[in-house]
Design a protein that fits this description.
- This protein has about 375 residues and is of the alpha/beta class.
- Among the domains are: about 75-90 and about 235-370, 3-Layer(aba) Sandwich (Rossmann fold), CATH 3.40.50; about 95-190, no CATH class.
- Helices cover about 35% and strands about 15% of the residues.
- The protein is built from 14 helices and ten strands.
- It has helices at about 30-35, 75-85, 100-110, 115-125, 130-140, 155-165, 170-180, 210-215, 235-245, 255-260, 265-275, 295-305, 325-335, 355-370; strands at about 65-70, 90-95, 185-190, 195-200, 205-210, 220-230, 245-250, 280, 315-320, 340-345.
- The protein has a seven-stranded parallel β-sheet with strand order 3-2-1-7-8-9-10, with helices on both faces.
- Strand 9 (about 315-320), helix 13 (about 325-335) and strand 10 form a beta-alpha-beta unit.
- Helix 4 runs antiparallel to helix 5 (about 130-140).
- The protein is globular, with a radius of gyration of 21 Å.
- Residues about 1-55 have low confidence and may be disordered.
- This is Putative gluconeogenesis factor.
- Its main location: cytoplasm.
- InterPro entries: CofD (IPR002882), CofD-like_dom_sf (IPR038136), Gluconeogen_factor (IPR010119).
- One of its GO terms (molecular function) is LPPG:FO 2-phospho-L-lactate transferase activity.
């Protein structure tokens, strides 16, 4: 048994260090530790119990829907930064195919899931108070050195350390989420690390590349992708979250390496098709160099249709500045059985980034509409 990391009552005891030397709050108490550890003032279950380990870690929007957001990297970060403001229960289901940088090194050396996209999702769910901002910056911090730590993100090491201590991927992520006071839960889409295989076309020639980094950096346009292993096991908690959600959000994000892979994990794909949740596709603000060069918004939807021909979508959300041909985009949305919503969701400085507050406002309006 890992002392101090048990999942039952008193689990947090391993973090208590005794009275503060300055006469302040005792280290390890709720006052000293910030949100999510000591006895709860509201009379709810003690943090560390099975009841408290569920998806709700930080304060979440009262009366909002249960939302599952799919993706990875910066696109999912943008989505979660908005959704945590309007969802009553939020779950991020994250791709696990990264093979570059710190994540790739940890994956190869330790045989673990690549933690980088999971870390970014947790950072996005941090609150706007001092606790949340500080921990968001800490887990995103990368070491700069001449040694082996160079390039490693603090959050990656923290996540992997908890995985090794607990022997449980989901429990480890839940622990990090509680430490950060995350406004939601982060889950991997699969319980095993994956490789993305892509067909890339350049000047009429098609080549096959393997690995997320190769997919992103190989010149040409990605035509199709597949996963290795071909039938990976889904994270059971992710499947359950999708089945019980009110809304499922696809995108924004790297279309071939962050969004589409969720539809290639059999159990997860089945849940995404069968769920009673409404489905929303949030389109990117610009094509991604090396992956979707030259893609129009409707081309993104065409590719989604090619990889998931039976998927139904209720809403396609696009920024007003990217819909050059509204009629064609409306037709593409209708092809999924959905409707197009155009709204200003980009940063006001003109950069191809989503503004969290603007996106949250639009999503909240959509969520409040009756079926």
């Amino acid at each position: 048994m890992n002392e101090g990391l048990e999942h039952g009552p008193g689990a947090a005891e391993g973090f208590e260090y005794g009275p503060g030397a300055d006469g302040g709050s005792e280290y390890g108490t709720a006052t000293a530790r910030g949100p999510g550890y000591g006895p709860r003032a509201d009379g709810g279950p003690e943090y560390g119990t099975a009841t408290a380990r569920g998806p709700e870690y930080g304060p979440q929007a009262d009366g909002g829907p249960k939302v599952v957001a799919l993706g990875g990297g910066h696109g999912l970060y943008a989505s979660l930064s908005a959704l945590r403001r309007v969802a009553s229960q939020l779950t991020a289901v994250v791709t696990v195919a990264d093979d570059g940088g710190s994540s790739g090194r940890l994956r190869r050396e330790l045989g673990v899931l690549p933690p980088g996209d999971l870390r970014m999702a947790l950072a996005a769910l941090c609150g706007d108070d001092d606790w949340g901002r500080t921990w968001s910056e800490v887990v995103q911090h990368r070491f700069r050195s001449e040694g082996d730590l160079h390039g490693h993100a603090v959050g990656n090491l923290l996540i992997v350390a908890l995985w090794e201590r607990l022997g449980d991927t989901v429990a480890g992520l839940d622990w990090v989420g509680r430490l950060l006071g995350a406004h939601g839960r982060v889950l991997p889409m699969s319980s095993v690390p994956l490789d993305i295989v892509a067909e890339v076309e350049l000047d009429g020639l098609v080549s096959t590349v393997r690995g997320q980094v190769a997919c992103a950096l190989t010149p040409g346009r990605v035509r199709a992708i597949s996963l290795v292993p071909a039938d990976p096991p889904a994270c059971a908690e992710a499947v359950e979250a999708v089945r019980s959600a009110d809304w499922v959000i696809f995108g924004p994000g790297s279309w071939f390496t962050s969004v589409l892979p969720h539809l290639m994990v059999p159990e997860l794909a089945e849940a995404l098709h069968d769920t009673r949740a409404r489905r929303l596709v949030a389109l990117n603000l610009a094509p991604q160099p090396g992956e979707t060069d030259g893609f129009s918004p409707q081309k993104h939807l065409e590719v989604l249709r090619e990889h998931a021909p039976s998927l139904e979508v209720d809403v396609v959300l696009a920024d007003t500045g990217v819909a050059d041909d509204r009629e064609e985009l409306e037709k593409a949305a209708a092809g999924f059985g959905g409707r197009l919503v155009l709204a200003p969701v980009a940063e006001r400085d003109g950069s191809p980034r989503h503004d969290a507050q603007r996106l949250a406002s639009v999503l909240d309006e959509i969520f409040r509409e009756k079926r």
